């Protein structure tokens, strides 16, 4: 089985800095991470690999420094890593991005494509579904569980606003994953030690077949009217406990902050 | 010269910090309180390959280096010094002497099991009458046919009771003094080997520290580590390496106390402003931060020299001396800066202060480190 996981490097911050002119993100100086939903999707793929044996390829579109998350993916256990990087791809909205990634995916063998539900820097949840449309694949979004029958059918537990559906889908297909459904594995020490000895394939515009007018900033119908930094809010902590324990936790926190 | 971390180092730090924060920190207060050895954490570390960081891949290790190993012990100790020392004793005191002195057969038998974490390692040198004067060994080993018979006891043995393999020093020829000491690889199930009383300690209370008893303990002759009479040299060299591990532990404790202090001083307000705004506070913290940064450079340098296979004995001694004394000072002051709260178990700094003390004592007291540094100076 061949699985391709689409991953994205995103800024790890609640305060996103924006280019006031272009309205795009300024990534310099902001710590970058693998997008959490994508990491959840990668874990789905690696679990299928552990159980059934599979070739797992990760692909990311981004600037050269996005290589870091491909190395991380190697350290988690993937078999192949591709960096889709070209100035011509830059400034793309979700449509242009999905066209570029779909063009790259056409060059690869896959039974399953996994993407994250959405990236924390844009929160659109559009790229995964658009890729499926470009490639004419069935898609299941918001996956919190992913099972495989060992032949050609995947069973997906798909989250809804107020419940879930169990959906069966035949390969080849595309699934978008939720980070909340799965705890991604840690990188292994040996995986880390060997991660930078493995090849990262860099694919540019010439590596894929795509109409230059449909990609990058020029191929993006989206126009950003205005960008602004949203108000600062400290990250909350979620406790799923009994009411008595919740009271204790709240009181302890209030005491810790000298509020009471 | 280059002070930058490599991309591999950065990736490793990303992993170990997340692991420490999510898997180790939540247990730290509980295992201290209950004096419980964190078996489940050791299993998790084993799964990631943390129990065999510097072991070559052909022996089932991760194929990493001592820099990564020091980062692991530092980051674990930053949140839980107990977890740090479990890894340090296992790696520096059991795996390293087998890697450096073992026969091919010994390496093939023991390293894969130790590196995978299936087996835990420990080291036995200290005896009731042989502490800093380690040459005064009273445990004896007598060759009888195809095996040695060991008699004696060891004390203050880290990981004892949980470890499967112990590197044990014993006298094979008393007339030769230190040159009559030999090293053995002893498995916990060898006849005549048993674990005695468990110490009740001030700090690192989740780590098991016990007595080892050898009563006509039968050790196969092929489990002699190195040659007869080389045991003292092996022990001293092993402790040189161990000091890098303990220095990393001390560094981690100091950093952990600094993290807690900075967080607290920003939140705690007295006389209408945060404690962090008082210049006296800032100056004291600046001095401590400088000591922590210097400790880290000493630790990394000692590990780097070990990786380069150049002499590092004095470097390791300096790293341990300075990092241990920094940890003690940082944690003591952290309790002070926290005031009454710092003296309670609501806050982790009192645990860190209790944990820090041992780093000035074990694997060579601070006095021993000064002896090693001075001996290197006047050689």
List keywords for this structure.
heterodimer, A: 260 residues, alpha/beta, nine-stranded mixed beta sheet, two-stranded antiparallel sheet, 6 helices, 11 strands, 27% helix, 23% strand, globular, B: 379 residues, alpha+beta, four-stranded mixed beta sheet, four-stranded antiparallel beta sheet, 10 helices, 10 strands
How is the biggest beta sheet of chain A arranged?
A: 9 strands, mixed
The count of helical stretches of chain B stands at 10
Strand content of chain B: 15-25%
Shape of chain B: globular
Description:
The complex is a heterodimer of chains A (260) and B (379). With 260 residues, chain A is of the alpha/beta class. Chain A has 6 helices and 11 strands. Chain A has a 9-stranded mixed sheet, sandwiched between helices. Chain A has a two-stranded antiparallel ribbon with strand order 2-3. The termini of chain A are far apart. With 379 residues, chain B is α+β, with helices and mostly antiparallel strands. Chain B is built from 10 helices and 10 strands. Chain B has a 4-stranded mixed sheet. A 4-stranded antiparallel sheet of chain B has the order 2-3-7-6, with helices on one face. A two-stranded antiparallel ribbon of chain B has the order 9-10. In chain B, a hairpin with a 2-residue loop joins β9 (269-270) and β10. The model of chain B has no long low-confidence stretch (mean pLDDT 97). Chain A binds chain B through residues 68, 71-72, 75, 186-196, 256-258, and chain B through 6-8, 11-12, 14-15, 18-19, 48-50, 52-53, 57, 61-64, 68, 267-269.
Secondary structure layout plus pairing:
The complex is a heterodimer of chains A (260) and B (379).
Chain A: E1 2-6, E2 9-11, E3 32-34, H1 36-52, E4 55-61, H2 67-76, E5 80-84, H3 94-105, E6 112-116, H4 127-135, E7 139-148, E8 153-159, E9 164-170, E10 173-177, H5 189-195, E11 200-203, H6 243-256
Parallel strand pairs in A: 1-4, 1-6, 4-5, 5-11, 6-10, 7-10
Antiparallel strand pairs in A: 2-3, 7-8, 8-9
Helix pairs in contact in A: 2-5, 3-4
Chain B: H1 7-34, H2 39-48, H3 66-79, H4 81-101, H5 104-115, E1 121-124, E2 140-144, E3 147-158, E4 165-171, E5 181-187, E6 193-198, E7 209-220, E8 224-225, H6 231-267, E9 269-270, E10 273-274, H7 279-307, H8 313-342, H9 349-359, H10 366-377
Parallel strand pairs in B: 1-4
Antiparallel strand pairs in B: 2-3, 3-7, 4-5, 5-8, 6-7, 9-10
Helix pairs in contact in B: 1-3, 3-4, 3-6, 4-5, 4-6, 6-7, 6-8, 6-9, 7-8, 8-9, 8-10
């Amino acid at each position: 089985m061949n699985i391709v996981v689409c991953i994205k490097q995103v800024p790890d911050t609640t305060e996103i800095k924006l280019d006031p002119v272009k309205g795009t993100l300024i990534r310099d100086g902001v710590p970058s991470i693998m997008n959490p939903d994508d990491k959840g999707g990668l874990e789905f793929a690696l679990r299928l690999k552990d159980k059934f044996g599979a070739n797992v390829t990760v692909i990311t579109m981004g600037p050269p420094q996005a290589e870091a998350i491909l190395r991380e993916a190697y350290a988690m256990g993937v078999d192949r890593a591709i960096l889709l990087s070209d100035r011509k791809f830059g400034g793309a909205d979700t449509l242009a991005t999905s066209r570029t990634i779909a063009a790259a995916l056409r060059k690869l063998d896959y039974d399953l494509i996994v993407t994250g539900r959405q990236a924390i820097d844009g929160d659109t949840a559009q790229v995964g579904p658009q890729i499926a449309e470009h490639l004419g694949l069935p898609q299941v979004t918001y996956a919190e569980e992913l099972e495989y029958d060992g032949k050609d059918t995947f069973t997906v537990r798909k989250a809804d606003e107020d419940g879930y559906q169990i959906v069966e889908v035949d390969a080849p297909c595309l699934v978008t994953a939720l980070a909340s459904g799965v705890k991604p594995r840690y990188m292994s020490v040996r995986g880390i030690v060997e991660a930078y000895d493995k090849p990262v394939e860099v694919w540019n515009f010439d590596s894929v077949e795509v109409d230059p007018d449909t990609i990058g900033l020029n191929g993006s119908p989206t126009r950003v009217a205005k960008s602004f930094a949203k108000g600062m809010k400290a990250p909350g902590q979620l406790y799923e406990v009994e009411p008595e324990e919740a009271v204790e936790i709240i009181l302890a926190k209030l005491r810790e902050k000298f509020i009471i | 010269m280059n002070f930058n971390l490599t991309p591999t180092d950065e990736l490793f730090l990303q992993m170990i910090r997340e692991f420490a924060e999510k898997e180790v920190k939540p247990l730290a207060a509980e295992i201290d309180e209950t004096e419980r050895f964190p078996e489940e954490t050791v299993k998790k570390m084993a799964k990631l390959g943390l129990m065999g960081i510097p072991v070559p891949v052909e022996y089932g290790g991760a194929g990493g280096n001592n820099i990564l190993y020091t980062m692991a012990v530092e980051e674990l100790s930053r949140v839980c010094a107990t977890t740090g020392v479990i890894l340090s004793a296992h790696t520096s005191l059991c795996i390293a002497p087998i890697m450096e002195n073992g026969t091919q057969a010994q390496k093939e038998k023991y390293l894969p099991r130790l590196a995978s974490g299936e087996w835990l390692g420990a080291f036995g040198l200290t005896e009731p009458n042989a502490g800093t004067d380690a040459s005064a060994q009273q445990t004896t080993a007598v060759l009888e046919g195809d095996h040695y018979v060991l008699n004696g006891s060891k004390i203050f043995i880290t990981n004892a009771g949980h470890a499967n393999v112990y590197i044990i020093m014993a006298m094979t020829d008393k007339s030769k003094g230190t040159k009559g000491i030999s090293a053995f690889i002893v498995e916990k199930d060898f006849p005549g080997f048993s674990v005695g009383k468990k110490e009740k300690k001030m700090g690192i209370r989740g780590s098991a520290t016990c007595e080892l008893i050898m009563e006509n303990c039968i050790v196969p002759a092929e489990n002699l580590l190195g040659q007869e009479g080389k045991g003292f040299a092996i022990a001293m060299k092993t402790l040189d390496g161990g000091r890098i591990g303990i220095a990393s532990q001390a560094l981690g404790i100091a950093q952990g106390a600094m993290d807690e202090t900075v967080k607290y001083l920003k939140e705690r307000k007295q006389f209408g402003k945060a404690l962090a705004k008082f210049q006296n506070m800032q100056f004291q913290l600046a001095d401590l931060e400088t000591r922590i940064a210097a400790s880290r450079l000493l630790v990394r340098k000692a590990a780097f020299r070990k990786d380069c296979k150049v002499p590092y004995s004095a470097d390791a001694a300096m790293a341990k001396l300075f990092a241990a004394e920094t940890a003690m000072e940082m944690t003591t002051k952290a309790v002070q800066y926290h005031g009454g709260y710092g003296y309670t178990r609501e806050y982790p700094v009192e645990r860190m202060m209790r944990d820090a003390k041992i780093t000035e004592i074990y694997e060579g007291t601070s006095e021993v480190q000064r002896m090693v540094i001075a001996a290197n100076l006047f050689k």
